[in-house]
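User: Reviewer 2 asked us to show a designed sequence for the structure in our supplementary figure. I'm pasting the structure tokens here. Could you produce the per-position amino acids so we can include them in the response letter?
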């Protein structure tokens, strides 16, 4: 069984490879256990934006900012 770190790494790899469906499934799998993890929410936000789901991306961004108000969002952290 994969660790949370391994799931996140695999999600990012899939995202970088433009395998958006697989990346989304992995991000959501991770969120089942850590629903406010900022890096996973950020990845899912970016993915939603890439898919043209701008309202979903905005919702996720607002969630990140409400749960982690002092967290700097680094848009280049895995892209």
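Assistant: Here is a per-position design you can include in the supplement:
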């Amino acid at each position: 069984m994969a660790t949370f770190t391994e799931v996140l790494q695999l999600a990012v790899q899939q995202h970088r490879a433009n395998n958006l469906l697989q990346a989304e499934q992995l991000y959501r799998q991770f969120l089942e256990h850590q629903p406010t993890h900022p890096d996973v929410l950020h990845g899912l936000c970016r993915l939603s934006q890439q898919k043209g789901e701008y309202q979903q991306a905005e919702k996720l961004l607002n969630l990140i900012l409400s749960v982690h108000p002092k967290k700097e969002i680094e848009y280049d952290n895995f892209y």
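For the response letter, you might also mention the following. Residues 27 and 44 are 6 Å apart (CA to CA). Helices lie at 4-16, 20-31, 38-50, 54-67.
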